[in-house]
Write a structure and sequence with these properties.
The chain has helices spanning 9-22, 39-43, 91-99, 117-125, 135-145, 163-188, and strands at residues 2-6, 28-32, 50-59, 69-75, 104-109, 130-132, 149-157. By secondary structure, the chain is of the alpha/beta class. α1 links the parallel β1 and β2. The chain is globular and about 45 Å long. The chain starts with a strand and ends with a helix. 38% of the residues are buried.
Length: 189
């Protein structure tokens, strides 16, 4: 059983539609993550084989393309005290990414949207390639619960003042890119 955790419904609408239309090899439970107060919702479902976080992420590394889907390979932070724990290397996830030529990216989780050069630089200085608002919390929860965790993110914006405009303009396209990769991953496992 896979728990797919997302922050905003538009991020997974295409994936939900694809699974509804084509079916899934795995049983899927959908969970919208709003804040740290959602921790008990996952704890109720300790039967999960995998917590899979999918969604949009802002670009901190200019070598990544907007619309590109990446596998998160590390959670980074400017402060070592903020790290949620190690991201396990799940062989099947890594093999899938390698076989499908999906690049990996390190991720930082921010409590607020990152829209200023100063905030972007701080996260980059901690080694992050992309930024979201939930993955670190989910990794911490998975590690505390002994559950496997993986995250696929689509690079949705430049983590700047124009982020919302970019997301509004491309959200359907980015969501389709993400859905295609995640659906294929679910079917391969």
């Amino acid at each position: 059983m896979i728990c797919i955790v997302f922050a905003h419904p538009p991020e997974v609408k295409e994936l939900k539609d694809l699974i509804e239309q084509l079916g899934s090899k795995s049983e899927i439970v959908w969970l919208r993550w709003r804040s740290e107060t959602d921790r008990p919702l996952i704890a109720l479902h300790m039967k999960f084989d995998l917590i899979l976080n999918v969604g949009f992420a802002g670009r901190l590394n200019e070598n990544l393309a907007l619309g590109e889907v990446v596998l998160v390979n590390a959670i980074k932070s400017p402060s070592i005290n903020d790290l949620p724990g190690q991201l396990q290397n799940i062989e099947s996830v890594s093999r899938f990414a390698d076989n499908h030529k999906i690049r990996t990216a390190s991720l930082a989780t921010a409590s607020d949207p990152v829209t200023t050069p100063k905030a972007k630089q701080l996260l980059r200085s901690g080694g992050a390639d992309i930024v979201d608002m939930e993955a670190a919390h989910l990794l911490r929860l998975a590690n505390e619960s002994g559950l496997l965790f993986a995250a696929f993110k689509v690079v949705s914006d430049n983590a700047d003042a124009g982020s919302w405009d970019t997301i509004k303009k491309h959200k359907h396209e980015w969501a389709k890119n993400l859905a295609a990769v995640v659906y294929e991953f679910i079917q391969a496992n």
